[in-house]
Design brief:
Blueprint lengths: L7 H14 L3 H14 L21 E8 L2 E8 L2 H14 L4 H5 L4 H5 L2 H4 L2 H29 L1
Antiparallel strand pairs: 1-2
Helix pairs in contact: 1-3, 2-3, 3-7
């Protein structure tokens, strides 16, 4: 999903450009749905309370794993638009170092207009998903510091 050759800033810029190229919100929602449909299925072992994201109206799970200093996420939802929102977040934050994640606020959410076009409950859920990604990055950065520092 994430092009490892793109910097995190370039990944955000590409996402913003893609959304700006779509003429209206009906097409943007369709694109979000397609991203959600393309998200790999989340293995059932991650569909537990340990990985559940609180604050989401639908069922959402995000399972982080550190591999070779990069944070990789497997995620899923029982709602197709929510799965698409996860895919949007992962297009920026997946396979990044904890430091890259922690130093890159989710400004692209406002830039692509998501904050204005989601219902309040979906917006809260999106913020909960962002928080989970940043919490995982903080935890991974702490582990990294304790191992190397």
């Amino acid at each position: 999903m994430t092009d490892p050759l793109l910097s995190i800033a370039d990944a955000q810029a590409e996402l913003i450009e893609t959304f700006e190229a779509l003429p209206d919100w009906q097409e943007r929602y369709q694109y979000i749905i397609e991203l959600g449909q393309a998200l790999p299925p989340l293995p059932t072992e991650f569909q537990t309370d340990a990985y559940k994201v609180r604050g989401c109206q639908s069922q959402v799970w995000i399972a982080p794993e550190v591999r070779e200093g990069h944070l990789h996420f497997q995620a899923g939802s029982d709602a197709i638009i929510t799965a698409g929102l996860i895919a949007v977040l992962l297009s920026v934050y997946n396979a990044r170092t904890p430091k890259e994640i922690l130093t890159t606020p989710p400004d692209f959410i406002k830039a692509i207009g998501l904050s204005q076009h989601l219902s309040p409950s979906r917006s809260n859920g999106l913020l909960s998903m962002v928080r989970r990604i940043f919490d995982a990055a903080s935890a991974a950065a702490g582990e990294d510091a304790s191992v190397h520092g």
